[in-house]
Design brief:
Elements lengths: L10 E4 L5 H8 L9 E9 L16 H12 L3 E5 H4 L11 H9 L7 E5 L17 E5 L4 H9 L3 E5 L6 H10 L4 E6 L1 H9 L5 E7 L21 E8 L5 E7 L1
Parallel strand pairs: 1-9, 2-7, 2-8, 3-4, 3-7, 4-5, 5-6
Antiparallel strand pairs: 8-10, 9-10
Helix pairs in contact: 1-2
Length: 250
Amino acid sequence: MTAVAARPPSTLYEVETLTDEALRDLLAYPETPAEPRLRANFIASIDGAVTLDGAGRKLGTPTDRRVFTRLREVADVILVGATTAGSKPYADLRVEADAQGWRLSHGLSPALRLVVVSSRGVIPPHLLTATVPPIVLVSASATSSARRALEAGGAVVCEMPEGQITSAAIRRALGDLGLNRVLVEGGPTLFSHLVAGDDIDELCLTTSPMMVAGPARRIAVTPAHVELGMRRRDVLLGDDGTVIVRWIRR
């Protein structure tokens, strides 16, 4: 596999010409990350909406879904907020056999982990029935009963300092757990929190080929302007009109 750093600064790819293996190689994290690398993945319409009729999946395309799966397959862990964790796709993070082989050959475990950020220590109960129990980052102010319920369900509970869990604390906790290839899937509240804390290293942004207008929010909303300088790394084009750009920190 060609190392990430050896690729040209910005390269254009036609997704349909790439095999799943080639996509994994393209989207792979640095081979031996020494600390957590937080890569976010979002989809938006041409006019910047993150949902259509309240659901992001309605903006999805075949190209986006294919790349979305490959992004998961090259990560150690998916990081989400408690509200986002309630959606069905997080109940069982399956990794297909061919992807497991790729993961093992690149130093990853065969299973994909889920980390949920919940200050109160409350997550959807169905997550506790997953094959691989989730890791839950809770505030020290969470009730003991909430922590006991998580532990009884098999979750790994990591206690953070009291109050709102900071982006820096999330990064430290992931590093302590040895989870350095991090895929942030939202929702917008958690992503905005990480952006405000200057803790996003990459953004894979899908532009869905539609305009929707309406009241939908942006992928990140903060009380004050935040400036994170980024540069374009890879551009993926789908025959269905989808454009996916991978942005990395300068």
